Amino acid sequence: MEENKEKLLEIIAKEIQKCTKCPLYKNRKNPVPGEGNPDSEIIFIGEAPGYHEDVQGRPFVGSAGKLLTELIEMIGLNRKNVFITNVVKCRPPNNRDPLKEEIDACKPYLFKQIEIIKPRIIVTLGRHSTLTILHHMGIKVHGISSVRGQIFKGELLGINITVIPTYHPAAALYNPKLRRVLEEDFMLIKMVLSGEYDKKKRTIRLDDFF
Ligand code: URA
Ligand code: SF4
Asked: Hey, whose CA ends up nearest to atom 3 of ligand 2?
């Protein structure tokens, strides 16, 4: 493991621990910087910590986290070899959606984490992380349903990146039909990770040629 990356991520985590840049610091038990492998090729970005995340200071450890962990394991990965974080690092009261001002105040931490890890793939979970990342790449989208399961290639913070938006796992807890959609999107993530997706595309182009 590149030791430097780990140290740099620790510095960001310490900044988050003492951050008071938005009002969410007032009610937090613990900020949730994120966790995982600093050398990961893939980052999963959620919305904001919920009750259990706030208590434990760790991302995705409640019921949405249980589903995310299952999906990650379904495609042959585990929580230790990926990186998991959120757009907003402190819990909004009663799990309400984060406000635009809170996202704007907090997103520099996320961007620093991305600059340090330099992943090849970013999976955005739900509307807030999808819009935050794609808008920063200059890609204008409005909702999650129209872009989930699609592949966006572009530059983010000087890094060539593939973004794959999908639904937030919490959505599948309320609407079980979405679990199937999440599973399909994760199979796509698996294909992009392994290079199978690009290979298939090349094969199609070659076939078109003959
Ligand atoms: N939902 C999120 O968006 N993030 C978490 O860490 C937990 C639940
Ligand atoms: Fe700071 Fe982000 Fe927490 Fe707001 S949510 S206090 S910006 S770490």
From this structure: 90
For the chain, the domain total comes to: 1
Supply the range of the domain harboring residue 103: 3-196
Run of H or E including 72: helix 63-74
- The answer to whether residue 208 sits within a structural domain is no
Pocket residue to mutate for ligand 1, from 44, 87, 168, most atoms within 8 A of Cβ: 168
* Torsion angles phi and psi, residue 177, rounded to 5: -60, -25
Nearest to 168 by CA among 92, 93, 65, 74: 65
130 lines ligand 1 (CB under 6 A): no
Is 210 inside a domain boundary? no
* Cα 18 to Cα 70: distance, rounded to the nearest angstrom: 32
Amino acid at residue number 100: K
Which pLDDT band, with edges at 50, 70 and 90, does 198 fall under? confident
Instruction: Tell me the three state secondary structure of residue 179.
Output: helix
Q: Is the entire prediction scored with pTM above 0.90?
A: yes
pLDDT, one tens digit per residue, over 80-116 is 999 999 999 999 999 999 999 999 999 999 999 999 9
CATH number of residue 178's parent domain: 3.40.470.10
Of 129, 77, 108, 109, nearest to 9 (Cα)? 109
